[in-house]
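hiii so um. not sure if this is the right channel but i have a protein structure encoded as tokens and i wanna go backwards to a sequence. like what aa goes where. can anyone help
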């Protein structure tokens, strides 16, 4: 039925993309660890407190006899020796028994005994040893109440500042920027332009920035103004983050990065203070690069949303603008940002003096794809039969991240079969895996479901083959993959840069082919084609409201209608809906006509599919020919000339 939508959904997380390296050290304490520290210190404090009271209680042994008894025993000559230890007395009697007692700590023993009426002569018979309190105990007991809290506070500050210094920064702030820093000296994390394939134009633009960061003096001396802000625009996975890091790597400067999405869940005010910290740190480390990834998360058009909840985003954005405006011309800090939604950015960001340099990164063309594959094949032993040019040719519309994950899947397949080398077959199988998700061999269809799926896919394939502007069929299968029960893989002959209205209309009809076949043959419709319907509805709506492809409404881009943001009237909204319905109705009628006219071919394709489950292009074309249909021709078999547009599965 229909797995991948006809057009790749924008902003989908890049499947299998290399996980971002997050090994750069943390700069300052994050909020949660601050409270973690507090808890630790409180705990330590409590332990010290209980220790203190324990020592205190040890220092007060219960006295055996009152001091008056000691005095009368001295007078009676029963005592041979007394050892004085602070205020406690150890009394040794003539019969060698010992007792303890206590005296007033401020007065000496002889004076004390004298007040009890002991005469000096009586006292002289007793040998008195003054031990004095053990130094530690005395000092501890007297000074602890003063010293301990001081120690505790000192420790707390030392603990905090150690973390800050550990990051090599003197800044001491609770505003914590969560920025990650890539140190230019750390070669394991260093990325250079050699790690980025293709993107020639982007690299050329960025060379200038590298030059400036390497020798800023040369530029400043001659009075040249270097752009403060560069924004990288491009589809997900095209290597924006990679390129930004490569600029830092080439120039050998520290790279401070933070992602716009991290600001979103923060408390009001925190985002702004993080931005301030980030800029401050970068200025100290200058020359340096600040990189704000996914800037659209904070940089959306202000005031467009409904109600509150935007305050934080707005404050963060404002702070970024304030910081950029506050740059001295001599500041050697370059701010880079990346987005895959340049259309939603606040125009204030793009004004001169801010992100006024725009660098667009396109999906790689065939040659670039081959280069990207080569880069990611560096550490993988490839078998002698591997031909990366062929893999590149079969992957129009793949992003760099998808090519990376293709190479990776290939290596996984080889490893799973205990082979030491990756073969061409591993890579070819991985193309479909990356495009559609893994095969689900365990997903068994009933006989009825199998037949229905076969007719559904045959419907897609047949309509694609008949309508002149639809992409040719590459492969059909009723083996489930990802969410789909079956799939028809269509690959355009060439990488497409633009799509025409006629192509869209034929695409919609081909995508409806599955639905129409089910409806005509089984006189019923299943939930199977629901995704097909989502795709065509979105496509038809875009045709009318974005691309000006409706004759009735004309060449107007209407924009999106949301609560609180209504760029057109209710009346126009109704007209758009009516046009969308008309486009879909007409496409449905055309699909019906194709299927009715070529019913025999449909049956033949469905039969073959039910038997074999997967039908490759050559077999498929044989069936077409047998039924009097001429398959679409490639100009020169196997060679694709122009460069983008992904193989579709419907
Ligand atoms: P983006 O930020 O545009 O979404 P990334 O820079 O995160 O894309 O790219 C993800 C991964 O895809 C990179 O780490 C890299 O492995 C691979 N990649 C993308 N583009 C390229 C390229 N032009 N050359 C080499 N590898 C690439
Ligand atoms: Zn389908
Ligand atoms: Mg990125």
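sure thing!! here u go:
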């Amino acid at each position: 039925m229909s797995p991948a939508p006809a057009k790749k959904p924008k902003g989908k997380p890049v499947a299998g993309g290399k996980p971002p390296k997050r090994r750069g050290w943390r700069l300052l304490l994050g909020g949660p660890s601050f409270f973690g520290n507090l808890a630790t210190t409180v705990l330590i404090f409590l332990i010290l407190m209980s220790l203190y009271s324990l020592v205190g209680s040890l220092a007060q042994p219960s006295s055996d006899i009152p001091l008056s008894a000691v005095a009368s025993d001295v007078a009676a000559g029963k005592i041979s020796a007394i050892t004085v230890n602070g205020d406690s007395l150890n009394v040794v009697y003539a019969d060698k028994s010992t007792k303890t007692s206590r005296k007033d700590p401020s007065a000496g023993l002889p004076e004390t005994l004298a007040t009890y009426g002991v005469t000096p002569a009586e006292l002289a018979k007793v040998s008195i040893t003054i031990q004095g309190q053990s130094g530690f105990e005395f000092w501890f007991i007297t000074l602890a109440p003063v010293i301990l809290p001081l120690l505790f506070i000192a420790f707390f500050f030392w603990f905090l500042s150690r973390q800050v210094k550990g990051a090599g920064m003197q800044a001491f702030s609770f505003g914590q920027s969560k920025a990650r820093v890539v140190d230019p000296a750390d070669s394991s994390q260093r990325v250079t332009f050699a790690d980025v394939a293709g993107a020639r134009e982007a690299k050329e633009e960025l060379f200038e920035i590298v030059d400036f960061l390497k020798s800023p003096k040369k530029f400043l001396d001659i009075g040249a103004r270097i752009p403060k802000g560069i924004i990288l625009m491009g589809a997900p996975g095209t290597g924006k983050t990679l390129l930004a890091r490569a600029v830092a790597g080439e120039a050998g400067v520290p790279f401070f990065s933070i992602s716009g999405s991290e600001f979103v869940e923060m408390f009001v005010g925190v985002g702004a203070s993080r931005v301030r910290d980030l800029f401050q740190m970068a200025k100290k480390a200058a020359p340096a690069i600040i990189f704000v990834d996914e800037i659209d998360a904070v940089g959306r058009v202000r005031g467009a949303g409904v109600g509150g909840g935007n305050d934080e985003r707005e404050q963060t954005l404002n702070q970024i603008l304030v910081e950029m405006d506050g740059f001295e011309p001599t500041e050697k800090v370059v701010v880079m940002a990346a987005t895959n939604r340049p259309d939603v950015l606040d125009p204030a960001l793009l004004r001169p003096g801010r992100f006024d340099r725009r660098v667009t990164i396109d999906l790689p063309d065939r040659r670039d794809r081959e280069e990207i594959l080569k880069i990611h094949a560096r550490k993988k032993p490839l078998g002698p039969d591997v031909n990366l040019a062929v893999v590149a040719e079969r992957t129009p519309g793949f992003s760099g991240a998808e090519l990376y994950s293709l190479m990776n899947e290939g290596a996984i397949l080889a490893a799973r079969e205990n082979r030491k080398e990756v073969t061409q077959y591993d890579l070819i199988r991985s193309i479909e895996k990356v495009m559609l998700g893994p095969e689900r061999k365990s997903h068994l269809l009933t006989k009825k479901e199998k037949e229905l799926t076969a007719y559904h896919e045959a419907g897609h394939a047949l309509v694609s083959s008949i309508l002149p502007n639809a992409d040719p069929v590459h492969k059909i299968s009723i083996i489930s993959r990802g969410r789909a029960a079956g799939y028809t893989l269509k690959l355009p002959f060439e990488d497409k840069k633009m799509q025409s209205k006629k192509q869209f209309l034929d695409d919609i009809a081909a995508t409806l082919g599955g639905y129409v076949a089910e409806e005509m043959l089984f006189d019923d419709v299943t939930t199977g084609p629901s995704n097909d319907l989502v795709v065509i509805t979105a496509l038809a709506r875009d045709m009318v409201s974005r691309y000006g492809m409706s004759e009735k409404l004309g060449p107007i881009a209407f924009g999106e209608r949301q609560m609180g943001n209504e760029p057109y009237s209710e009346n126009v909204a109704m007209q758009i809906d009516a046009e969308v319905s008309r486009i879909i109705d007409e496409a449905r009628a055309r699909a019906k006509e194709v299927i009715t006219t070529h019913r025999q071919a449909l049956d033949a394709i469905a039969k073959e599919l039910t038997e074999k489950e997967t039908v490759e292009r050559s077999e498929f074309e044989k069936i077409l020919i047998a039924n009097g249909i001429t398959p679409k021709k490639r100009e020169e078999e196997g060679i694709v000339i122009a460069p983008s547009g992904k193989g579709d599965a419907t």
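oh and Residues 240-241, 293, 338 surround magnesium ion (ligand 3) (CB under 6 Å).
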